[in-house]
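Summary of Year 1 activities. Much of the first year was spent building the evaluation harness for sequence design. The harness presents a backbone, in tokenized form, and records the residue chosen at every position. We chose the following record to illustrate the format because it has been used consistently in internal testing since the harness was completed.
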């Protein structure tokens, strides 16, 4: 390929490098056929352009932004000018919006389309208390009438692919199950391009096990709807198990992708029937860390990037043989010089890496995929 690459070109390159035959059990979102049926989920405080691009360079064919508050997008305030930045390689990409007013959600959706997003995604899943208290996110599973009004208002201004992130219900009640069915059924009627369902209730937040059997049931009931599964996917092996055991069309990888963008190439290898890949080497990890920090500096400037990248570096440290020492070193990062010194100290000699963990650390169980940082910064 020569000249300027289109989004379709990047999808083809990803398919070739991943060893995936995109024609076999295709995974589609509207006009976009994905090279591999795994994608980077929207992660509050993490899935900015930097994280998305680093993952794409390692086999991720599709990504979703963190939840962007509709009113912030409309006013052009904090969040829109940074979290919504796109570049040529960041396609296809979904801009995820969260709010409570139908017309504001529709206006925000229109702005994101004009900004270059390929897909609009509605967040009806966030379980954070501050978000719920403002009738956003997972709250809408308790108010299907309002949820449907939002869906119809957004659909009226989005002629192309529209998707949604849901949880399986607000709680375990029969009323909550009926609300889910109403909202999902409306999405089918409005011809949403895909639905992503997390296997926990809103009330569960991130405790207990995700109900993968529920995902299998939903796919069986709505075979014509592209369905993505979410919940308890921490490794490539987890993603493959979800894909085959539930029949979902694709897997949203959330916590498992933080600090491990190589999870997508490992998933692709397993799906192609190849042996599990070795964990990324120390030098491969160093390259990823350097890329990630450089992109963050482009977006935020050095000072804010250093603060942002501390928590990212901590996640990368899990793949390093001296993980605990590297973890402590990244915590102290305050500048580009500090970041470089950590790389010089721990990533200057090549060697085998360490496999990702099948279960997240207990202290990360809530923070990694909650909307907490979003709630603190923009939603409240």
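For this record, the design step produced the sequence shown next.
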């Amino acid at each position: 390929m020569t000249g300027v690459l289109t989004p379709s070109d990047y999808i083809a390159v990803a398919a070739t490098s991943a060893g995936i035959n995109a024609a076999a059990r295709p995974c589609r979102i509207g006009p976009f056929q994905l090279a591999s049926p795994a994608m980077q989920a929207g992660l509050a405080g993490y899935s900015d352009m930097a994280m998305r691009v680093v993952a794409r360079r390692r086999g991720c064919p599709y990504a979703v932004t963190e939840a962007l508050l509709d009113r912030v997008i409309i006013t052009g305030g904090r969040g829109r000018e940074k979290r919504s930045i796109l570049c040529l390689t960041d396609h296809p990409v979904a801009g995820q919006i969260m709010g409570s007013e139908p017309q504001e959600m529709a206006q925000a959706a229109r702005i994101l389309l004009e900004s270059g997003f390929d897909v609009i995604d509605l967040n009806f899943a966030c379980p954070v208390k501050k978000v719920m208290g403002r009738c956003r996110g997972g709250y809408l599973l308790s108010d299907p009438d309002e949820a449907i009004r939002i869906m119809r208002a957004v659909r009226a201004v989005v002629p192309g692919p529209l998707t949604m992130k849901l949880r399986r219900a607000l709680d375990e009640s029969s009323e909550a199950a009926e609300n889910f069915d109403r909202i999902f059924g409306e999405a089918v009627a409005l011809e949403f391009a895909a639905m992503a369902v997390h296997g926990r209730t809103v009330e569960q937040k991130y405790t207990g096990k995700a109900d993968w059997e529920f995902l299998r049931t939903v796919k069986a009931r709505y075979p014509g709807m592209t369905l993505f599964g979410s919940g308890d996917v921490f490794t490539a092996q987890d993603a493959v198990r979800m894909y085959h055991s539930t029949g979902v069309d694709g897997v949203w990888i959330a916590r498992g992708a933080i600090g491990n963008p190589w999870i997508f190439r490992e998933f692709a290898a397993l799906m192609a029937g190849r042996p599990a890949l070795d964990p990324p080497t120390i030098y491969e990890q160093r390259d990823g860390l350097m890329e990630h920090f450089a992109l963050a500096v482009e977006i935020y400037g050095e000072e804010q990037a250093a603060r942002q990248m501390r928590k990212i570096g901590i996640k990368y440290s899990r793949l390093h043989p001296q993980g605990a020492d590297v973890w402590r070193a990244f915590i102290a990062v305050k500048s580009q010089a500090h970041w470089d010194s950590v790389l010089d100290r721990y990533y200057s000699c090549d060697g085998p890496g360490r496999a990702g963990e099948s279960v997240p650390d207990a202290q990360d169980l809530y923070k990694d995929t909650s909307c907490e940082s979003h709630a603190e910064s923009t939603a409240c």
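The first helix runs from residue 7 to 18. Quantitative recovery figures across the full test set are reported in Table 2.
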